[in-house]
Each structure stands twice: as structure tokens, then as C-alpha cells.
Amino acid sequence: MLINKWVKAKAACSNLWHYTNFKRFATQIKNSEDILETPNYEPDKFYEDIKKAYECTVTPSLKLFYNEPLLIHKGRGQWLWDHRGKRYLDMFAGVATVSVGHCHPKIVAAMSEQASKLNHVSSIYMHPHLYEYANKLISKFQGKLKVVYLTNSGSEANELAFLMARLYTRNHTVVSFKNCYHGATYGTVASTAISTWRYPFIVQPPGYLHAVYPDLYKGSWSGSKCRDSDVQVSENKCNCRNGECIASEKYFQQFEESFQFSLPRTHSIAAFVAESIQGVGGTVQYPKYYLKKIYDYVREKGGVCIADEVQTGFGRTGEHYWGFESHGVEPDIVTLAKGIGNGFPLGAVITSPDIAASLNYALHFNTFGGNPLACVVGSTVLDIIEEEALQQNAYTVGTHLINKLANLRSEFPNVVGDVRGKGLMIGVELISNPETKQPLEAERVLDIFENIKDMGVLVGKGGLHANVLRIKPPLCVTKEDADFTFTVIKNALEMHEEKYRNN
């Protein structure tokens, strides 16, 4: 039945796929039917009931993707099925969360075995899996990062990191970049600097400063060598040398002004926090050497440096296990979540013994932090990344996909403004004017977004204007998956051009 639907779609819209890509995808659909369990409910009625619940009682403030929101029934590896049995290539991974693939058999087996023995015990009691997992996780870090605190989410991890930094430095201000996202709790949303995540009428807590962010695409300075990516912003000759970047220096001067005009001269900063690549903000990368300059400056001012690796960690950027390693810096605190548990609610804060000791001023306790089931899942994720060489796969497949997507800039210069990223953390910025770089109108972005979904690929949206396609799949995707994703995005852009050709 599934294959027949796709054959009809192919016949009706022959320009939507290159034949080889369609043939491969159709074969995968046929093969997938062996593991697809038919839902034991009446699909359409059940769908309407759930949709009404989401609109009225189940987190009604949540804005679901798509005109007809997806009801996901099952997942395997990099694939998802909806309630009617239609299959999708998941190139968003639950917002960069499914790191090793949906329902990985090793994780399923480990969870089942542990749940049959001990599902939960408070961290005030010892259990071996916490000790084993903590040691395994810390072994992925070098230098002074020797202590781990386990949490339930990235927001909670960042809240704890801010608390540690303030206690340790005895300062209060946390500095973050504009266009960043660090969570949706009271404190982390104050550090977040995207208006769509800020509620009106709420007095924000004091002690947060948003500094200029160095957007090489839309900002004032960029060159042909400034970005740590295979795809650069422009072909303009760059005067940067090894160890130096003109754009980095210019943006750093603006960062320094934030301190000069907005903070006291001394005892002004507790911490600086930054993602290695901005995620929700639209996969924004910084100039080379920029974070190194910031880290040195912040430490001169008495603050500590926090690396938010919630989206960039665990090999996603390909070249390194942690995103901050690409910048040549050593953070004082690292926060982790999302890919750490492959979808299991888990987060962590990694820091030095000295900073960790600051929590001894009072009691600190987390009911679920270090839960036996969470530790087993986290440990298994680390094993799978190593055993299946997923970091290397992220580099190989991601580089292949980024370079293919880069061609869209010349093929669709009036719609595709920028392609950027590293490994399997990729952004495609959609524009309406190549000169002004104005974001593509929301209606047109949604058209492209819907068409990509209809052709069997799921991607995300990001950026202040939600005009950046976010591609952050499970790290197990293949080059064939990348080729199919490219073909679908290209076809969606062609459909967009055809629809708006005369406008």
C-alpha cells in the first residue's frame, strides 16, 4: 500500500525526484514494512481526538509544526512513521536530540534489563551505575573538568551552571550573546536573547546582559576565510592570517563595549555562556578565534566560561566530540543534554572540583539526577557513538551534505542566502532579497517547509524570523539519506520558484 502511494505521487509529479533517488527510497519503504506495526486504532478518529486534546488540554500553548500536524506512531534509526503508516526521513532528530537513532536496539535492551532490576533510587543512596556512568562521561573531557552533576534537561543544567558560577565568583551578571537560546526556565530564559521566547508583562530577573553576536552572514564583517566551515559567507578576499581574523577582532571590539558601557569596572561578571554554534538562533557560527578572545577577556574580568554543548556535543559537529574544541578553548563549566540520552530526559553539568565545591554553601539535591535508568541509557549512548564511529559519520555525511546544499545559493540566489554549519548541524537561511538579506516571508517559508515534509523529509526551523531550515539528524544517517534530503529541498525550492514566478 505504501509503495503504491509513492508510485502514484511519482507519476503525478514527475519533477519531484530524480529517478535514482526515488527508486532507492521506494525500496527502503518496501523493506521497512517488515518492521512497521499497524496501529491498533482507527487512525483518523484517533488523530482528531488527539489534535483536540493538544488544542485544549495538552500544552495548548505549544505551536505544532505543519498545517496538518504529524502524529508519530513509530521510529527506527533515522526513520519515523505517522499514524497512517507514512514514512519520513527524520533530519531534525527531535531537535538534535536523537543522537544514535530512534529505538536503538542496544538502548532498548539496556533499558529493559535495568527496569526489571531497579528503576529508581534517590541519589542520596549509592548505586553502581551512577559511578560507572560518571567516570565514563568524565573521561570524554580533559584538564580540570573532573566533576559531574546529573540533571533532567538542558535548561536545568544551565540553571545549575549559573548558580555555580555566581557562588564561585561571588559576582552576579551572566553574559550571553544576542540570538542565543539557553533554556525556558525563569533564569535561562533571561539569558536567552530571542524575542519569540520572551513573555510580556514578566519582570526579568536581574543579572543578565546580552552582548552583540558575530553574525558573519548578516553582520558588518566577513571574508572568505573567517568561518570554521567548508562553506564561507563570501568570496571577498580575506586578509586573515593563521591565528588572526579581522572579523573576529572587529566583533570583539563590540563585545568589549558591552562591558565598558553596561557593567561596573570591577567585580562585574559571574559567567559568560555561549553555544559553540547557535542552535535555535539558526545555526549561527562565529568567526575563527572569536571565542578564544572572549574567554581570555572574561577571565581577566573575574568570570568563568560556560560552554553550552546541549546541541553541539557528542560528536555532532564531526571534527571533535565537543563543539568547543573547534574553538581551541577550555571551558570552566560545560552543560549537556539532548543527545546525551538519545531522547531520554537527561542532562549534565561538568566542571572543576573548585567550582563544584561552591555548592557546599547549602544543600543541593536532585531527585532524579543520577537515576539508575538514566545512567544506563547515558552509558549506552556513549558506547554506541564509539562502537559505530558516529562522530566520524557525522563528519563524513555532514561535510557531503553541506557541500551539496551550498550549491543552492547559486541555483536559487533570490531565496537561499546562506548555508552553514559543521558535521550534522546545518542551517539553510531563506531570504527574499539577496542585497538586503531580508528574511523570506513567513508564508513562503511555510510553503517550502510543508513541501519538504510532503516529500518525506522532516527538518526544523530556526532563527529570529524562523526562516532558517535546521538540519540536525540522528548521527547514523547515510550519504544516501543526505542525497535524498538535498533532492527534496531542491525540489521544494523549485516548486516555490514556480509558484511565485510572476510575483
TrEMBL record:
Catalytic activity entry: N(omega),N('omega)-dimethyl-L-arginine + glyoxylate = 5-(3,3'-dimethylguanidino)-2-oxopentanoate + glycine; (R)-3-amino-2-methylpropanoate + pyruvate = 2-methyl-3-oxopropanoate + L-alanine; N(omega),N('omega)-dimethyl-L-arginine + pyruvate = 5-(3,3'-dimethylguanidino)-2-oxopentanoate + L-alanine; oxaloacetate + L-alanine = L-aspartate + pyruvate
Subcellular location: Mitochondrion
EC supergroup of this enzyme: transferase
Subunit structure: Homotetramer.
InterPro entries referenced in this protein's UniProt entry, alphabetically: Aminotrans_3, Aminotrans_3_PPA_site, PyrdxlP-dep_Trfase, PyrdxlP-dep_Trfase_major, PyrdxlP-dep_Trfase_small
Family the entry assigns: Belongs to the class-III pyridoxal-phosphate-dependent aminotransferase family.
PROSITE patterns: AA_TRANSFER_CLASS_3
Organism: Ceratina calcarata
Cofactor(s) recorded in Swiss-Prot or TrEMBL: pyridoxal 5'-phosphate
Lineage: Eukaryota, Metazoa, Ecdysozoa, Arthropoda, Hexapoda
Domain of life: Eukaryota
Gene it is expressed from: LOC108624048
Keyword terms of this UniProt record: Aminotransferase, Mitochondrion, Pyridoxal phosphate, Transferase, Transit peptide
Protein role: Multifunctional aminotransferase with a broad substrate specificity. Catalyzes the conversion of glyoxylate to glycine using alanine as the amino donor. Catalyzes metabolism of not L- but the D-isomer of D-beta-aminoisobutyric acid to generate 2-methyl-3-oxopropanoate and alanine. Catalyzes the transfer of the amino group from beta-alanine to pyruvate to yield L-alanine and 3-oxopropanoate. Can metabolize NG-monomethyl-L-arginine (NMMA), asymmetric NG,NG-dimethyl-L-arginine (ADMA) and symmetric NG,N'G-dimethyl-L-arginine (SDMA).
Enzyme Commission number(s) of this protein: 2.6.1.18, 2.6.1.40, 2.6.1.44
GO cellular component, one term: mitochondrion
Name of this chain's protein: Alanine--glyoxylate aminotransferase 2, mitochondrial
